[in-house]
UniProtKB/TrEMBL annotation:
InterPro entries assigned to the protein according to its UniProt record, in alphabetical order: bL21-like, bL21-like_sf
Pfam families: Ribosomal_L21p
Gene Ontology molecular function, alphabetical: structural constituent of ribosome
SUPFAM superfamilies associated with the record: L21p-like
Family, per entry: Belongs to the bacterial ribosomal protein bL21 family.
PANTHER family the UniProt entry points to: 50S RIBOSOMAL PROTEIN L21, LARGE RIBOSOMAL SUBUNIT PROTEIN BL21M
Protein name: Large ribosomal subunit protein bL21m
Organism superkingdom: Eukaryota
Signal peptide: none
Gene Ontology CC: mitochondrial large ribosomal subunit
Amino acid sequence: MMASRAFSTHLPLFQQQKPQDGAVPDLTPLKLEGDLYAVVKVHNNPFLVTKGDKMVLPFNLKTAEVGDVLNFHNVTTIGSRNYTFVDEPISPELFTIKATVLEKTKLPMRVTEKTKRRQRIVKHAISKPHRTILRVTELKLN
């Protein structure tokens, strides 16, 4: 019986508390912790980031230029080593996450051979995928 308790998946009391509608959750344990992380969604792709991280987006952000500062509002998790706050999504008034666009590049040209069964024709599909690189400059709780 003791072994099953050691591998329990129960969440600590801080993680189980759900605030009522409109109530602001108590995030003081997270504010007292040093290093924070967050799970940010960009075009529905989750990225786990901390302050100073590089985010490599496998697509082109058309509206952003190099040097622009982006604010992230679609965040599902904010946590530290000991505490985690999960909501879908977290209210943007509770945190500030900013990133700077470092570069917008393309990957090297890639040639893929397209064939059909039992036919001799081989088509070559050429692609140069886009890539946007961001640096997380600010991650804090308000």
